[in-house]
Amino acid sequence: MGLSTHILDTHLGRPVANVAITLYQQRDGAWHKIGSAMTDSDGRCGTLLAGHALAAADYKLHFETGPYFGGLQTRTLYPYVEIVFTVADPDQHYHVPLLLSANGYSTYRGS
């Protein structure tokens, strides 16, 4: 079905725009780049598969969060965030959001 993500700055209570995200798939014990994109003005990104079909496999989302905090002139503990997750059923949609602040983050499977 597909894959999407979004980023919300939980400290400021707003979406995080213009963050670079790269999607990797694990095959043969190594990470292989599938696609990359930027979050839109609503902090969302749904184009990471770049024409590839979602397969049953392990994936990694790499979020370049350092430049976002640099633009706010805020120090961050996390210059980037990586979320590794398993797609068990590629016929389902996987939404993997990032809730972010300068000193913490969390994620969950959304809808």
Assign a percent range to the helix content: under 10%
CATH architecture descriptor name: Sandwich
How many domains comprise the coordinates? 1
* Gyration radius over CA: 14 Å
Low-confidence stretches: none
Secondary structure category:
mainly beta
Major sheet details: 6 strands, mixed
Question: What is the typical, i.e. mean, pLDDT?
Answer: 97
Q: How many β-strand stretches? A: 10
CATH topology: Immunoglobulin-like
Give the amount of beta strand, in percent. over 45%
Report the order of strands and helices.
EEEEEEHEEEE
CATH superfamily: Transthyretin/hydroxyisourate hydrolase domain
> What general form does the structure show?
globular
What's the tally of helices? 1
CATH class wording: Mainly Beta
Give the CA-CA distance, first to last residue.
Answer: 12 Å
What is this structure's SSE topology?
Blueprint: E1 2-9, E2 14-15, E3 20-27, E4 30-38, E5 44-45, E6 57-63, H1 66-71, E7 81-87, E8 93-95, E9 98-101, E10 104-107
Parallel strand pairs: 1-8, 1-9
Antiparallel strand pairs: 1-2, 1-5, 3-4, 3-6, 6-7, 9-10
Describe this structure as you would to a colleague.
The strands form two sheets. Strands 1, 2, 5, 8, 9 and 10 form a six-stranded mixed beta sheet that branches. A hairpin with a 4-residue loop joins strand 1 (2-9) and strand 2. This protein has one domain: Transthyretin/hydroxyisourate hydrolase domain (Immunoglobulin-like). The mean pLDDT is 97. The protein is mainly beta. It has one helix and ten strands.
